Amino acid sequence: MGVVRGFQWLTVFLQLYIRAYARACRVETSVASDMNTFLSGWLSEMTEDEKTFLKFSQILHEWIPCPPLQSREAAMAALTGAASDGTTTPAQNGGGGGDPAAKPNGDQEGKQSPPPPHVKQDGSAPVTVEASAETAVKYFEDAAARAKALADQGELLWEVCHVATLAQEAYILLQIVSLPYISKSGKSKIKLADSGPVVESLKAVRAQAATHLKTISTLLNDLGEKEGSETRRDEWTEGSASLSEANSALGA
Fold first, then answer.
1. CB neighbour list of residue 126: distance below 8 Å, 6 or more residues apart
2. Less packed terminus of the chain by CB within 10 Å, N or C?
3. Measured between alpha carbons, how far is 48 from 189 in angstroms, rounded to an integer?
4. Running DSSP on this structure, what letter comes out for residue 182?
């Protein structure tokens, strides 16, 4: 695939999903909110399509307002029934989580922590994204177009599948970050002053994303039928004839 996989590659994807699930559960997380905190060395372990997926995750993070969050301690206390003294106060306006120094008696209301500086740790130019519903949809549109282009050019099948898999992952990520706003039945879940337009945008983006995924699915089905045809099997048999002869010679 042109890149060497390592621990940092896994770290990037883990952080993307931790950040998404923390929002879905409405719990604070220490995972950085800015993709520019990733070292360039980490990104060197990713394919170009994975870097595009990384940008898509940042689009979702910046475009969709953060729902009210609670501290991890408060969330655990709610699950276990334990006392929640010393936990943060959930935000009330759709912003980030509460201040870790918030007092349990409510004297100090939760407030959103300032975002980290928009600068990469290695000193290189920061990566920026245009975060909007349109750019979120464009990711899926571009993924479908790229998968088709790779197939039309006769590229290796794993390259087409790589693009298709990331598009599917992107849709899963979109579904996760939609959870605080939209229920499984498609109805709005939380009531915020500005949640109405967000919910409608999310519904529209998910519908358009699903359309592009169906296009990719059709493409994969067509490729599967083509590669699994009798003609294609005969081509593989003829192409591997020289290997069979070489193996026979070695065995003799």
1. 36, 118, 119, 120
2. C
3. 36
4. B
